[in-house]
What does this fold into?
Amino acid sequence: MDNELAWKRFPKRAVHLDFHTPPGIDNLGCKLNGKEFAATLRDAGVEYVNVFAKCNMGFCYYPTKIGYVYPGLKRDLLGEMVSACHDEGIKVAAYFNVGLSHEHALRHRDWCVVNKLGQVYQFDKMDHWFRTMCFFSGYRECILGMIDEVLAQYPVDGVIFDSMNTPPCYGIECIEEMEKHGLNPKSDDDMQYMAYLSALSMRDAINATIASRRNDVFAYYLGLEACHQPTHIELEVLPQGGWGYDYLPARIRYIRTFGKPYSTMTARFHRSWGDLGGIRPEPALMFDCLNSIVNGGKCCIGDHLHPFCKLEPAVYKMIGSVYSEIAKLDPWTDGAKPQTEIAIFAPWLGKYSKDADRCGIAMRGYSRMLVELKQQFDIVNSDADISCYSIVIIPDFSSLNDADAAKIQAFMAKGGKVISSAWGGLNPDGSDFALPAYRDAMEFCGDESHHFSFIHPSTEIADGLPEIGTTIYEKGIAIKPKNGKVLSTMGVCDFNLQDWDYRHEYLYISELEQTDAATIVEFANGNACHFTFPLGYAYFQHAACAYRTLLRNELHRMLPKPMLKLENFPSFGQATITAQDGRRMLHLLCYVPEKRGAVMEIVEEPAIALDVKVQLRMDGKAPKRLYYAPDGEDIPFETKDGYVKFSVPLVKGYRLIVAED
It folds into this structure.
């Protein structure tokens, strides 16, 4: 299915139904009424639903001849749901958990992943993942057979495969497969890489099974990166379920760069998947859905069906309320494309990387700062065309291989500007900077030895910062400037945090000396800037506003006329720009998650912003009309200095402003 056709057929509003049901439930499905089931979805504005063929427990909910039917089940739940939903014009995808299948693991221990200790069951762990399935065992043909069985028997519109990211397996099948790839089972890194290859191999086998039956179904693999998805992308992100509220703003700016249809999959649960009695406040669900559409995506909401198979009216009343409001925005969100001018360069995405976790933290830190600064940006991997951006950011741990370095060098040669930090921009072995412009500007001297150290910015980059040495909480690298311009120097102490001299531990680090060691260097005629400490990682871990201010000031030097300028809009507010033929849309999103108790982040009501001053860069397109959508109220404006200037008296949660060319 090509991208153009996929976009035409892709649903705007979906529901994902979990149905992981342990054995022992009498009368499973006893309250399923197909017409009522489908009508409930229809009335809630649902266009597409993921329903269950095989759950985490390993049970099937259709009359399989290959797998295990749920004990005592006498009905074809899958078939009844597919038929009833199609009668209401609702598309249906069949769900399979591939990596988890506890009934198969129970009956076929030789099909399980063998961990490093030789275990197939981890009784000391006892969570969803205490036993997982090996994709090179006999289970492979079993799961492929079930997938083929469903595609042959049911006219589903899609298939979705869960838990593709199983852990490394030390079973003989995987060891032999490793040998084919020249990998060493004694290397933990090689084992992780083999797990990655195993998942891709399983995906390829499933794709081939689908292609043998159908060429018109959506297919998605939870646990695989966006670049490995064949038809579309569903970004699973439950803010209160472990993902947090910083995950979506970063990841959606990555998945939208592939040209495939994409949606975000949030959920109605108070905590996470499986919280059947937990319902979030409606504004929280609205915030999640708005956060998708303002970034060009579509919406999916997760639910868990009761074992008796009756949809909960309270849940679908809330989903319907949210989706009805989202639907009112369709004329301005259908086909709208995000407008951006900055890219975070993330070369580790789209391939196996042992540094993916800390690289991801740095990426989320940069994303958070750029969102708070109201900058318009994407996140791209090594395969992306970066020529359309004004600025590229190379985060803290992003090394550059020869191809990456050549791409950045060509970008700079055409006037593109680059911001980097810490080890970002080094070659893969970490011995030196990968780019000649960097090597000309400064000498790489290894890791910084002082911790804590302190930032002392020059007046050129100090706007909004207190006149005090600002703590650098995370160590970075040491450099010696050559041809670069030093924008900030370092203050140090005579000892480091947690030093121990067998008498005292040093925990109170005060600045004793201001040195001429550089912490920020600008070079390449002002077109490049390097922070010596891990700016993104440190911001995500410590949220020091001074770090964001430093980035803001450097961006102002490089991009004095950004796409958007706002005043009186809070730091937590989000602002994005999208475009359709003949018009641009400015989305102002104003919600703030509040931490309550030990771990929960709660959105209970929209936040309010008053008298927001807006400057939207015209880029040669002076608007004929400016108005709020969907109500159509006109907005007075003026054009000056290349910007459309206007005020928004009130933003309560969300405001959509449309500029007609």
Observations:
- The mean pLDDT is 96.
